Amino acid sequence: MTNHEDVVIIGITGGIGSGKSTIAKWVRELGYPVLSSDEIAKQEMSSNIELRNKLISEFGESIYKENGELNKSLLSDLIFDANHSQVKKINQIVHPYAIESIMNQLEELANNGSKKIFVESALMFESGMAEGYDYIITVHTDEDKVIERVQSRSGLSEEKIKTIMKSQLNPIEKKKLADFVIDNNGTVDDLRVSFDTLFPILEILPPNDSDEEE
Questions:
Q1: What is the CATH classification number for the domain harbouring 35?
Q2: CA angle 138-141-142, nearest 5°?
Q3: pLDDT score at 84
């Protein structure tokens, strides 16, 4: 994803309620740059005029509030519609802008001397970006734990949570596609132990040039 052969780019993914954001936070605390694809997508939807016009053309003026802010509530309803009728349209419109921004930010970080850069993304495999990473970590949590955790923090119904989960790649498939898997079915302390065990390995990983060798 960058023009720097010595830079290692590591993806952090996992479904809703998996704990990937907690892992990303701990990586930041250790001093490594972490880009959030979700935040970058929201920034693009808020500030990129071309993207704003495309969203308004597709979904109407109400996709933005009167003060110009993104209508996150309406966006959430569209994304997690039970029939998934709108999410593909949204992704097709937004993903190219988000991906371009991520690539630009990765290049800037690399130019400024970063040798290991992390990207947190729920839709890493779904967006087609997976091949651009040297390594991918999947944070996996069983469905019952996901529902319990998301309900406790957000108050969403079990039906809504399951709808969100269905809109994402099956967690078992993510485990198969990932280079590293962190299981998160215990406590936060358990997750921290798993993270602390894995991270020294991540710190010494070289660039993955397997594709070039093929």
A1: 3.40.50.300
A2: 135
A3: 66
